[in-house]
């Protein structure tokens, strides 16, 4: 099981506002924080962090990398996806069914990191 995911950002203030609003849909709250990173804690013990790269180089997006956030229902997928769009995300595939028993929406955050929100079952 993955314990936490770290996403690079070039603007910590902008990312903080985006993820504060987006992750509130999951009930996640800010945990650790410094001048270089912010971590949000989920109720299941997992974390998502945004960070200014330690090497001082600009953050860049990994080709083929995607973070998937598990939702409790298709309705939560719809709510998170709609929130992401309202926050300025780029659409990478609207929320909807993706085969049998899988419902998902895909988007990119303000730094271009690809995320999915999904419900399986």
Radius of gyration: 14 Å
CATH topology title: 2,3-Dihydroxybiphenyl 1,2-Dioxygenase, domain 1
Average pLDDT reading: 95
Number of folding domains? 1
Reported for the largest beta sheet, the result is:
4 strands, mixed
Instruction: Give the low-confidence spans.
Output: none
Q: What is the CA–CA distance across the termini?
A: 19 Å
Number of helical stretches of at least 4 residues: 2
One letter per element, helices H and strands E, the order comes to: EHEEEEHEEE
Taken from the alpha-carbon principal axes, the silhouette is: globular
CATH architecture: Roll
Strand order of the largest sheet: 1-4-3-2
The CATH superfamily name is 2,3-Dihydroxybiphenyl 1,2-Dioxygenase, domain 1
- Judged by helices, strands and strand pairing, the structural class is alpha/beta
Strand content: 35-45%
